[in-house]
Amino acid sequence: MNPMVDLRGVTKRFGAFTAVNDVTLPIASGEFLTLLGPSGCGKTTLLRLMAGFDTPTEGSVWIGGEDVTHRPPYRRPVNQVFQSYALFPHLTVMENVGFGLRMQRVGAAEAAERVHEALALVSLTGLDARRPHQLSGGQRQRVALARALVCRPKVLLLDEPLSALDAKLRRSMQLELKRLQRQLGITFVFVTHDQEEALTMSDRIAIVNAGRIEQLGTAHEIYHRPATRFAADFVGQANLLEARLLLQDADTVQVSVTGGLELSLPLAAWPAGATTALLAMRPEKVHVSRARAPADFPAAATNIFEARIEEEIFQGATDHLVLVTAAGTRLAVVVANESAYGEIFHAGDRVFCALHADDLVVVRAE
Amino acid sequence: MSPAAKAGAALPGLIDRRTPRWRAWLLLLPMVTWLVLFVVAPTAILLVYSFCERDEVGRVLFTFTLDNYRRVFDPVYLWIFARSIYYAGLTTVICIVAGYPVAYCIGRAREEWRQRLLLLVMVPFWTSFLIRTYAWITILKQEGLLNGFLRLFSPGTAGLDLLYTPTAVVIGLVYAYLPFMILPIYGSVEKLDGALIEAAYDLGAGPLRVFSSVIIPLTLPGVAAGTLLVFVPAVGMFAITDLMGGARVPLIGNVIQNQFMQARDWPFGAALGAVFMGLFAATYWVMLRLGAQEEDSVA
Ligand SMILES: Nc1ncnc2c1ncn2[C@@H]1O[C@H](COP(=O)(O)OP(=O)(O)OP(=O)(O)O)[C@@H](O)[C@H]1O
Ligand SMILES: [Mg+2]
């Protein structure tokens, strides 16, 4: 099937500065795609290219199977929810939401009906006559959403729409947005620099860094199989270990990582012919036990080593540990506040650790 | 000691409720002095004079009379009032039409250009107002620059007879007051949030409709401020009507000036001035009320 939005080899330069660098990004119809990246990486610029506020220096933008590269924003089947909401201060809630319909010359009766429908959709009723400055942040956000949805766009662009809300409201809006997107079946392109938000809401996530897309995949893929050092580091926490090849046999390789710890991983995971590589490992993948004999760990946990707990930080549901292995490798590890074996850990404890070979992911260093 | 009192004591002078009120008034003294010297006293003198009589040689006699006000409502003067308002209104409209695009372009120009362009708007203020008005006379007069320029293209034409006509007066007024229209409009254009314009485009508005339904309403406060700054002084202007209108189209400013100078009828001049002031106090009040409502909806 044709993608709903398709960026083909898009580059955007501002003078000598390249804000978007050769991005190719097909977005399926009805998909919830999140652009995730740090401040200044080019997320807003990518949205502006889709909305039509900027024209690419190179490459083309396709929406709904048509080349819209040089089409102005008011002729694109796309609407945006702005970061600042950009509600018209001189218009009421009703007039704000009805603005797009007025521009499309929709009849007054139909417009009024659709405006009420849209306001009901975002659960905002009874505030029709208010002006934006008489609304709370959350209410403004809903008006902005209704104003965009009422136009029935093929694609809805959302530029950090939740960043001005407090943590609790933010959570509930995340779920609500997700519900709306499922219900309406509209393609959502959502921008955020909050990785948790991205993991919660998206069908797919595009990790953006310095104007490039580092990785495009589902939340699971990105979390469990990060492709680059940046992706591993930006989404969740990761231990990044420089690995040097020691031994290679029929189906495994033996490596030594920063600090001296020796680990084994499947040969298939190791880049062919390489002598060094960068490994990423999520902190919760390490099994830790003080009492258990190594033999009691899951059979698949092929890497077993001893370590000392250097630091222990209790965080409620989880316990964050800094381990130093016998060889001297430092690892950040997260365990449930009572480990799977019902143990409670303290700094200074000596523990056994087990690690599944598949949980070591080779990432590009860039 | 209660906690509140302790907090008060910790911040001496800041929330100290015991400070007598007169000390607070003391802080206002410089401003009050200024107001009394330059606003209250002259206005009071004007009002007092407007109820006085004068003798044959123009000395003010402090005997109460309402005659001066009766004369103000003589049709001759009412007619001049009306004409002054018409000229000032025309000037204001032309200033809006000519000044808005300029202010808009400056306000939306790139940051580093804005200051330079604003400077250009203000350059005329570096030269005396009278000299600039004389410059216009050399442009507009029969053998002036404008007609010389026209004759370059069609030799032998009589040229335009502009100087000492109502047109010349309006040209002079527009020239003098245009910056006072441009600056406040520029202020509101510059404050205009670019995201609002983008939002309007995004919602399907073409350039014209973005202008009419978003940009105009949001810059209206600037236009209102400019209107006040242009209209009110334009009604009372006398130098331009004298110099460029050749005193053939006297406006209320000229009449008032005449009473104080040639006619030596200060009480009548004062009465004209008082009515004039009352009229504008009322206009200001109405505009402020409208502005406050606008502000209320835009804030
Ligand atoms: N009009 C412009 N002129 C020059 N540089 C620009 C322009 N717009 C954006 N940039 C630059 O391009 C880069 C990407 O900007 P962009 O706004 O897309 O970042 P972002 O990922 O949205 O960041 P944030 O999370 O802070 O909103 C930034 O370094 C920015 O300075
Ligand atoms: Mg941004």
Question: What is the element layout, followed by pairings?
Answer:
The complex is a heterodimer of chains A (366) and B (299).
Chain A: E1 5-14, E2 17-27, E3 32-36, H1 43-51, E4 58-63, E5 66-67, E6 78-81, H2 93-103, H3 108-121, H4 137-149, E7 155-159, H5 167-184, E8 187-192, H6 195-201, E9 204-209, E10 212-217, H7 219-224, H8 229-234, E11 239-248, E12 252-257, E13 262-266, E14 276-281, E15 287-289, E16 303-314, E17 318-325, E18 330-336, E19 350-355, E20 361-363
Chain B: H1 3-10, H2 21-27, H3 29-50, E1 53-54, E2 60-61, H4 67-72, H5 75-107, H6 111-122, H7 129-140, H8 145-153, H9 166-191, H10 194-202, H11 207-236, H12 239-245, H13 252-260, H14 266-298
Antiparallel strand pairs in B: 1-2
Helix pairs in contact in B: 3-14, 5-9, 5-11, 7-12, 9-11, 9-12, 10-11, 11-14, 13-14
Bound molecules: adenosine-5'-triphosphate and magnesium ion.
